[in-house]
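Continuing the batch. This is chain 6 of the set; chains 1 through 5 are on the previous pages. Same settings as before, nothing changed between runs. Recording input and output for traceability.
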Amino acid sequence: MTSSILDLLPQLAGGAAHTHALGFVYDGVDGDRVRIRVPWREDLVGDPETGVLAGGLVTTLLDHVGGLATWVALGRFETIATLDLRVDYMRAAETRRDLIAEARCYRLTRSVAFVRAWAFEDTAEDPVAAVQSAYMLGSGEGRGPGVNLRAAGETPR
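Output for chain 6:
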């Protein structure tokens, strides 16, 4: 992995308009695992009676950290798009606590990255939610439209 993607991760974690507005903060990389967090804020609460963070925030956090894990696995930045995202909510987030998300890309093909991610307060072994997701890779490094329809090395007609 090049150091350039590692240098970009803090900006990629919270630099987009929506991630900046939600307050996403880069928390680091440990091997192939990327970690970001969202500090608890009143305006991010989904249920005012309990103070629990909104479920949509949890989904957005997990989707975003999955994208970061994809870039780490690729070792570079390229366009990606979420193809599939399955969220299993296991419990409510704890009130007035920051939420951490961690992800790793466990399989890369020529056109798809497969990622697992978790959201939690203290440890991934006690998750608020877990995600299984897939991301479509862009057409970087000479790959063009339809590359997945051709055999490796076959040139387009």
